[in-house]
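Q: Predict the assembly, please.
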Amino acid sequence: MLDLSRVNQIDAAAQEAENAIHDLQIELQAEGRLIRRQAFDAGRPLSAAEKVRLQEIGTAMRDLNNALIELSFVTVQQIDNSETVVVLKDRVNQINQNLSGSLDKLRKLEKFAATAARVADVLAQVAQGLAAVAVAVA
Amino acid sequence: MSHKCLMHGFRTVLIWDSSFREEAGVRFLLRNHSALLVALVVGTAACSVTSYEQPVNTFAEASRDADTALKALNRSVTDAYTGLLKQRAAGTNAPVEFKPGDCLVKSDSCRLEITLEGQPQLLPPPPVAGNMVALMESIAAYADNLAALVGADTADEVTTHVNAALGSIESLAATIQEANPGGKKPAVNLSEFKTPVGDAVSWLVGQYVASVKIDGLRRATSEAQPVIAGASQVFQKASERAAIAPKEQMANRVQEAFETFQTHRTAANLDALLLSTEQFNQVLTARPADVFQRMNEAHQALANTLQRKDVTLAEASAMIEQYAREARKLAQIAKSFIDLSSKEG
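A: Predicted assembly structure:
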C-alpha cells in the first residue's frame, strides 16, 4: 500500500501558509479600494499621504506574491524528494519492463510463425509440384 | 460478445476444417475438436483487441500532453524562483560566491551560490521537480507501450512472410523443371493459387497474437492501476502548488496594469488592464489537478473494462476522451507559462 501521508502533510502545510498570505492580500486590496473610494466620494484627488500608502500597499502585495513563489518552490521540492515519488518511479519502471516482455513475445512469435508457415507451404507445394511431374512423366 | 465476433469465430472453424482435408503436408497441425474450440474462443479475442486500439492510442496521446504540461509547470516554477534569487542577488547585499571548489581550472563544474537567511542556494537553482518529471515520463512511456502492444502488426508481418514464401514456390517450380528437362513445367499459377495452408496459419497466428495482446493489456493495466492512482494524487498536489508561480507572474502584471491605469486613466491603459485580467482569468480557471485526476479515472475505467468489471468500453472511451481534452488544454496553457516566465526573467 502506497504511503501518501508525507506528501499530504507537506501539501496541507503549504495550503495553510498560502491561505494566510491570501487573507493578508485580501485585506490590503480592501484597504487600497477604500482609500481610492474615499477620495472619489469626496470629489478630490488623492492626497500625498494616500499616494504613499497606496504605493506601500502595492509593494506589500508584490512581496507577498514573492513569498508565494518561494513557498511554491520549496513545497514542490519537498514533494519531489519524498520517498513516495521514488517508490512510484521504481514501480512504473518495472511495469514498463514487463510490457517490453510482452512485445518481445510477439516479435518471437512472428519469427516462429513465419518459419512454420513457410515450411508448411513449401512442403505442400513441393508435394503438388512433384505429383504434377510424376503425372507428366508417366 | 458481439454478433460480429461470434460469426468471425465460426468462420475460423470452417477454414480450419477445409484446410485439414486438403493438405496432407500440414498433418503436424492440430486435428482434434479442442483445437476447433480454441480457434472459436481465440477468434473472439481478435475481435475485442481491435476495439481497444482507439481508446489506448488516445490515452497515450493524453499522457504525452500531461507530461508536457507537468514539464512546463516544473520549468515555470523553477524560472520564477530563479528570477526571485536574481532580484535578491542584484538588489541586496546577500552574499554571492562561487560554490566551494568550483570554477577553478581543475574543477568539475562552475556554479554560483547565494546565501539567504544563512542558507546557501545554487544560482540558478536546479529544476525543482526532477523526480516527478521522470515519473510522469515513465507513465507516458507506459501508455506508449500499451499502444505499441495493441497496435503491433505481428499478424500482418506473418502474412507478409507467408506471401513471400509464395515467391519461393515459383522458383521451386522452375527448379523441378530443370530437374526434369523435356517434361512439362508443373502448373503452379500463383494468381489462382491461394495457399489455404498459408492462409490458415496466418489467420491462426493472428488470433493467437490478439489473445497475447489482450492478455498483456489486462495484466499491465491491472498492475499499473495502483501506481497511476498514487502518482495521480502526488501530481494533483504538486501541480496546484507549482501553478502558483505563473499565477504570481500574472498577478503582478495585472497589479502593474491596474496601478498604471489608476495613475493615468487613458483608454489605452484601460485596454491593457482589461487584456491582462482576461489572460489572468484563463490561468486561474486552468486547474492542473483536474487533469491528473482524469488520468487516474480514465486509466481505472480502461483497466476495469479489460477485466470486464462494470464499465463498458464506450464508458471507458468517453472518460479517456475527456482526459485527452483536458490534458491538451493544460499543455497549451502551461506552454504559455514558459513564454511568460522567460519574458519576466
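The longest helix of chain B spans residues 33-91. The radius of gyration of chain B is 31 Å.
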